[in-house]
Amino acid sequence: MFDLTLAGARAALRRREFSARELTTVYLGAVEALNPQLNAFITVTPELALQHADAADAALARGEAGNLTGIPLAIKDLFCTAGVRTTAGSRILSPFVPPYESTVTAHLLRDGAVFLGKTNLDEFAMGSSNMTSAFGPVTNPWARRGSNVPLVPGGSSGGSAAAVAARLALGATATDTGGSIRQPASFCGIAGIKPTYGRCSRWGIVAFASSLDQAGPVARTVEDCAIMLGSMAGHDPKDSTSADRPVPDFAAACKRGVKGLRIGVPREYRSDDMPPEIEALWQQGLAWLREAGAQTVDVSLPHTKYGLATYYIVAPAEASSNLARYDGVRFGARTEGADLTEMYENTRAAGFGAEVRRRVLIGTYVLSAGYYDAYYLRAQKIRALILRDFTEVFATVDALVTPTAPSAAFAQGERMDDPVKMYLNDVFTVPANMSGIPGLSVPAGLDPDGLPLGLQVLGKPFDEETVFAVGAALERAAGVTAIPAIRAGGPGR
Amino acid sequence: MSLDPATVRRIAKLARIRVEEDQLSQLQAELNGILGWIEQLNEVDVEGVEPLTGGAQMALRLREDVVNDGGIVEQVLANAPDRAGDFYAVPKVVE
Asked: Which of A156, A160, A231, A242 is catalytic?
C-alpha cells in the first residue's frame, strides 16, 4: 500500500479493494514505526484519523465518494485544527488548542480526507532547514550514498515533505512564504506547489507574512498535488485577499502536454557558483520540454538578484506586526513578570527561538520611526519592480523553468553559523512570493551523492493549469524511480 | 547603517522581547550582518516607482458591516493563560 500514489489509492478505495480504515491503520502503523527516527510529526491523532476513516467508509458504501474520501493526509502544524493542538513549531504556542478549523483543512475534511496528525516545521515557518523548530529537527528520509549523516528536509514545511517522502502520508498540507513548499519538496524528492496568492484562503493559518503566505500541497506526484489543490483552493469570505474565482480541474491540466508552449529561461538565475549538476539538470529539463514539443526562449528578469534582500525587509516587517499578538494574554504560554510590560518581555523572550527573535527585531527596526522610508518603503518599490519583470516576461512566454534550490539537502547543523547563508537557500523561490505568481517544484533527477534535485515551474497569476501541464511533462520525462532510504515498507525500519 | 548596542536595546524594548546584556553583542553582530547584506538594495533606482503593498493584484473586498459571529465566550477564553470570570486577566496595571 505504501507505493500507491494518492490517485492510485483513491481509485482502489472507490473499487473497494481495501477500506479507508485498513489504509489508515497501515499508515498510522508506519508513522508509529518511523516517526521516532524522522520527527516529522509533532502530534499524531490516531483516534481522530480512524473516526475520519470510518466516516469515509460509510460515504464510500453509500456511493458518495468526495475528491479525497478516505485519503490519509498529514497537516502542517501551522493550520489550526479544531480541538487538536496547533503549535506553529513554537514554544509560545505549545499549549494552544484552536477552537476552530482553518478554511483549507475544513475544505479537505469536507471532501472526505483523513488527518493522521500535525507535521513539524521551522518555528512560525521561519527557516529553510526545519532546524528552528522548538520540537526538534526533522531528518530527511534520504541520505547521501554510503553515508548515514542525517540531512535536513528543507524548510519550513520540512515535516510535511519528510512525511510524504517516507510514505507516512499520501499527501500533506504546507505553506510557502519564501519557498517553504518548494525547497523542502526539492530536498525530499517530491512535488509541491505554491499556488497564486489568493488561491487558497489564509484564514486559520498561523500568520507569518500576510502578503506572502500561501498554502499549497506536497505529494509524491504532480497529479497528486493537483488533486489536493482542487480541494484546498476556493473563495473564502473570511479572507479578504481570497480570490473569488472558480477552481479549475487542476488534475485534468496535468494531462495537457506542452506542445506549442513557450518556456522562458531567465538568465539571471544562472550564476558562476551554481553546482554543475544543477546546471546540467536544468539544461536537461529544457531539452525534455523541447522534445515534448515546447519552445524554450531566453528571457531576462533584471531585478531577480534583489528579491532575497527585499524579502528580508518585507517578511520580517510583516512578521513583527503579526507576532505582536503573542503577548501571554489571550492564548499561548505566559511567563510571569513584576508588571505587565515585564510579563510581555519575559513571555516573548521565553517563547520565541533565536531565528524568530532576529526577524521580529529586524522587522521592528525597519518599521521604526526614521527608518521606514529607507527600508520598508524602498523594499515595496523594489517589490513592484520584481512584479513588473514577471508581467513583462509573461507577455511573451507561458511559463518559466528554473532550478528550485541552489543545492541538494545539506547536513543537520550546517549553515547555522551565519543567518544570511541560510537565507540564500531561497534565492530561486522568493521572487514568486514577492510577485504572487504560482510555482511548482518537481523531482527531476539526482545529484552525484544520490540526493534528489527539483526543477521549478513558474506561471502566470491564476494559471496553475499551465504550471501543472509543464510540471507533469517534466516528471514524465525525468521518470525518477529512486526512493529514499528511510520509508514505510522499506528494508530495516 | 550599523546598529550600536543602545539601538539594539531600544528595538528589543519596542518589540517587547527581553534581551540579556550578555546576549547583546552577538545579537548586534547578527542584526548588522543581515542589515549589511540588505544594503545592496540602495543601488536600485526606485525613482517614480509606486510601492507594491500586497500579494494580490486586486482590490480588497468589503463585507457587509453586520454582526455575523459572537456569543462564544468560553471558546474565546479557552486558551487564556489567566482569566477572571468572562475576562482575560493580566498583572495589575493601576495601583
From this structure: A156
